[in-house]
Amino acid sequence: MLNNYIMDYDNILIMAHKRPDGDAIGSVLAMYLYLLGQGKRVSFVLDEYASVFSFLPGIDKQGLKNDIDLVIALDTSSIDRLSHEELFKKAKHSIGIDHHPSNTKYCDYNFVYDMEPATCQILYYLFRDSDVLITKDMGICLINGLVTDTNGFKVGNLTSKSYEMVYELSLLGVDVKDICNRTVVMKTRKQFSLLHKAISNAEFLLDGKIAYTYLKKEDMDEVNALLGDHEGIVDMILNVIGVEVAIFLMETKDGVMASLRSHGNIDVMKVASAFNGGGHVCASGFTIDMEMTKLKNKLIMEIEKYL
Ligand code: 5GP
Ligand code: MN
Fold it and tell me: What does CATH list as the number for 189-304?
C-alpha cells in the first residue's frame, strides 16, 4: 500500500516533469494536499505552467520549504525529464508514480502502470486502496489530470475504472464538466487566433494519412501568445477522417518543439524516440535544434516506415 512507503518520512518534496501538463500538475497537487492533511512537512515544485490551471486548489503554495528526506516524482518517465533534477538527487529516498511506457524506474519504489490513461488515475486508486480520505479538493486535482491527459475523455486508455473514478469523485461534489470546459474545451481569443493560423497552415500528406501543421515564432509574437496557448492544435488536426498521424511543430526558444498524435495504430512514441523524445503510443513529443522544414521531412520519412 502506498501509505506504507510514505508514512515513515516527515520531510517530503513532490515534483513532476518539465513543461508540466494537467496530469503532472494535478497529480502533484493531489499528493501535496493529501500529505499536508497528514501533518507532513511537504513542499512541491513545478516549472512554469499554463494559467488555465491557476484555479486548482493549492497551486499557489509552490516552493521548497523544508528539508528533503523523500522525493515523490510524478508523471515523469526519466530523471532528465524532471523539472528539478538537482533537488531530486539531493533526496536519500524516492518514490515514482507514472504511466509512461518508457519509464526507466529511476526511483527506489516505482509505481508504473503504463496501461492507465493518466498518473492521476493511478494515484486515485493508490489512495483508495490505502483507505486515504480523498477530499473534494484532491478530487478536483485528480480529475484535472484525467480530463487533460484524455483530451476530455476522447483519447487514451479509458476504461470502466476511469468512469468509476469520475462517478465516485462526482459524488464528492467535483464538477467534472466544469474542469473539462476550463482545461480542454474553452479557448481564449489568443488561442483561437493560433488555432486559426495553424489550421490555415495545415497540409495533408501521404494520401491524407499524415496531417502536418506548424507555428513560427512570429505567429506566437503576433498574438502575444502565452505558455500553453498551442495546446489542442495537434489533437484538432488528428480529428480529420483518414489521418493516422498528426504532426505539430512550433518554434520555441529551445528549438523546434514537436507534438505527435495517433489513434493507436501507429506508435508515435517510437517515432519520437528516433529524435530523443518520448511519451505514449498515441501522444509523444520532443524538442530539437533543427530547421523546421528539414525536421518535417525527416519526421515524414520516419513515420512512413510504419504506415
Ligand atoms: P505534448 O505533445 O502534449 O507536448 O506531449 C505529449 C507526450 O509526449 C507527453 O506525454 C509527454 O510526456 C511526452 N513528451 C513531450 N515532450 C517530450 C520530450 O522532450 N521527451 C520525452 N521523453 N517525452 C516528451
Ligand atoms: Mn500523464
Answer: 3.10.310.30
Contact predicate 126/142, CB 8 Å: no
Q: Is the CB of 277 under 6 A from ligand 1?
A: yes
96 and 105 Cβ atoms separated by less than 8 Å = yes
Ligand nearest to the CA of 278: 1
Atom index in ligand 1 nearest the CA of residue 258 equals 2
pLDDT tens for each residue of the chain, 307 residues long:
888 999 999 999 999 999 999 999 999 999 999 999 999 999 999 999 999 999 999 999 999 988 999 999 999 999 999 999 999 999 999 999 999 999 999 999 999 999 999 999 999 999 999 999 999 999 999 999 999 999 999 999 999 999 999 999 999 999 999 999 999 999 999 999 999 999 999 999 999 999 999 999 999 999 999 999 999 999 999 999 999 999 999 999 999 999 999 999 999 999 999 999 999 999 999 999 999 999 999 999 999 999 9
Which ligand has the shortest distance to the CA of 280?
1
- With the most atoms of ligand 1 within 8 angstroms of its CB, the residue from 27, 284, 286, 287 to mutate is 284
Q: Rounded to whole angstroms, how far apart are CA atoms 142 and 165?
A: 9
Distance, in Å, from the CA atom of 175 to the CA atom of 179, rounded to the nearest integer, reads 6
For CATH 3.10.310.30, the residue range(s) in the chain are 189-304
With a 6 Å cutoff on the Cβ, whether 43 touches ligand 1 is no
For domain 2-185, the CATH architecture is: Alpha-Beta Complex (3.90)
State the distance between the two ends of the chain, measured CA to CA, in whole angstroms.
43
